[in-house]
Amino acid sequence: MTLWTSDEAVAATGGTTATPWEATGVSIDTRTLEPGDMFVALKDVRDGHDFVAQALANGAACALVSRIPDGVPADAPLLVVDDVLTGLEALGRAARARTDAKIIGVTGSVGKTSTKEMLRTALTGQGKIHAAEKSYNNHWGVPLTLARMPKDTGFAVIEIGMNHPGEIAPLAKLARPHVALITIVAPAHLEAFASVEDIAREKAAIFDGLEDGGIAIINADLDTTPILRDLAPAACQTFGTTEGADWQLLDAVTSASATSCRARHAGEAILFKLGAPGRHFAMNGLACLAAAQAAGADLGRAAVALSDWTPPSGRGQRRFIHLDAQMPEQGIDLFDDAYNANPASVGAALDVLAAATPPDPAGRKVAILGDMKELGPTEIALHAGFARHPAMDEITQVHCVGPLMKHLYDALPSSKQGLWAATSTELADSPLALVRAGDVLMIKGSLSMKMAQIVDAVAKLGQSVADNQEGHR
Q1: What is the reported pLDDT for 463?
Q2: DSSP per-residue letters across 25-41
Q3: Where is ATP annotated to bind (predicted)?
Q4: Where are the beta strands (DSSP E) in 167-295?
Q5: DSSP codes of every residue in 275-317
Q6: CB atoms within 10 A of CB 239
Q7: Residue 328 — very low, low, confident or very high, per pLDDT cuts 50/70/90?
Q8: 189 Cβ partners below 8 Å, 6+ apart?
Q9: In terms of Cα–Cα distance, which of 289, 292, 248 is closest to 272?
């Protein structure tokens, strides 16, 4: 199915092309480019123009460029614009303008990607759904997601993130959501912000892009809720455990592989289930249902569909690592939460670990924690403070990675101290020193800490299978 014709793309960007073409997709990476894609020659660590010839050889329908690259003939299918990123933004703006889709914008310090994926699942069967396959939420990720949106999309979920002040508003104005959801405001990126209150104001900038009559959905349980409410439009709904919240979570009961939730909205009971344990997932699920209904979806169908959601790899996914093919009950219960970390998400992960039951009665609850980045002057206190987190009472041992987590390691009682290493590679080299058969293990840290190396090392100890498959108990 054609996504962009050359005429449409020229009209959208003001660029020029020497030959007609039709593109079925949009790509920024030759490694994942599909035949028929438009290749966008963005400049990042490498200049995308250096890969245009390869993209065309791999079947790209055209390339979005700001100059004719070396080795590429002038009559090649190129869309030439003044600036590639500006051109991509123009494509995103045009894609947004030509669709009748209901757009849901999602931001927050924690839970953006999980909530985006929950919405993708919950909206199943109620229209054609468009959402990025990854965490494409920055200055190029949002326009890329929009530029990939088919004309006949029914619902689009656009994740919007930030690292510095002033980043959310222009992305929100590009996406022009009908519904704007803020999952939570928490200490993150404090190197760039003076306070959590300033983070709340930046998150609330998503409302700057709301369509006329658009609906804001905010967390009712935060210290910064009054700030969000003051900056939200009149059509604002709240979710949380707080009495009086428009969408109130009444109960969330976790099992080994699921969370069963009971909530209330407009005086009516809502029951829904999620394919992972965690109260934070329950909150995201409730926010997802609020956003789905605000976008015009059927609430009952969304609640039923939501039960099919499970977290992606690195974001709370649960796996069982079989250590003996002849003894399927022998193994390690692994919570892979290694993708990223900040104080709120680490606290939630510790709560999940504390509530878990090891696969063996003699098994331990073990955490491996890597540094949380971009926390500014409070970084030492925020790391060391987890020694006093209530969940620590239930956790047997904690291994730490990185100079900042050394402060947590030193603050822990000696009975809980496992290993400390400066890098994840050091711990990944000795997985048998970290965990043993019968344990439940949680791994989490900021993306730059490469905690996925430890996940991979533990997984290689045995055969990893999905938690819901038979034979793991």
Answers
A1: 56
A2: EEES-TTTPPTTEEEE-
A3: 108-114
A4: 179-182, 215-219, 236-240, 247-254, 259-265, 268-274
A5: SS--HHHHHHHHHHHHHHHHTT--HHHHHHHGGG--PPTTTTE
A6: 28
A7: low
A8: 162, 163, 164, 199, 374
A9: 289
Distance, CA of 447 to CA of 92 (rounded, Å)? 28
Of 186, 141, 137, the closest CA to residue 161 belongs to 137
Comparing CA positions, the residue from 154, 118, 137 lying closest to residue 288 is 118
Q: Does domain 4-85 have CATH number 3.40.1390.10?
A: yes
Q: Nearest Cα to 139, choosing from 117, 169, 116, 115? A: 169
Cβ 64 vs Cβ 81: under 8 Å? yes
- In this predicted structure, the answer to whether residue 471 has a pLDDT above a threshold of 50 is no
| Residue 325: predicted pLDDT | 65
Instruction: Determine contact, residues 149/95, Cβ cutoff 8 Å.
Output: yes
Q: What is the pLDDT of residue 371?
A: 97
Contact predicate 106/117, CB 8 Å? no
Mean pLDDT of 215-240: 97
Q: What is the CATH number of domain 99-308?
A: 3.40.1190.10
Fold (CATH) for 317-466: Protein-Tyrosine Phosphatase; Chain A (3.90.190)
Phi, psi dihedral angles at 28 (to 5 degrees): -115, 5
Helix%, strand%, coil% for the chain, nearest 5: 35, 25, 45
pLDDT at residue 470 above 50? no
Side chain identity, residue 195: S
At residue 95's C-alpha, the angle toward residues 26 and 287, to 5°, is: 95
* 111 annotated as ligand-binding: yes
206-215, 263-272, 352-361, range with the lowest pLDDT:
352-361
Q: Where in the chain is the domain with CATH 3.40.1390.10?
A: 4-85
Cα separation, 451 vs 423, whole angstroms: 9
Mean pLDDT of 96-103: 98
Q: Is 112 annotated in some ligand binding site?
A: yes
Q: How many CA atoms lie within 13 A of 304 on its CB side?
A: 7
Give the angle subtended at the CA of 349 by the CAs of 357 and 400, to the nearest 5°: 100
Domain with CATH 3.90.190.20 in the chain: 317-466
On the question of pLDDT at 189 being above 90, the answer is: no
Tokens of 286: 């409730």
CA dihedral 437, 276, 386, 440 (to 10 degrees): -10
Q: Is 108 annotated as a binding residue?
A: yes
275 annotated as belonging to a binding site for a ligand: no
166 is in an annotated binding site: no
The answer to whether 438 is annotated as binding is no
d(CA 449, CA 422): 10
- pTM to 2 decimals? 0.88
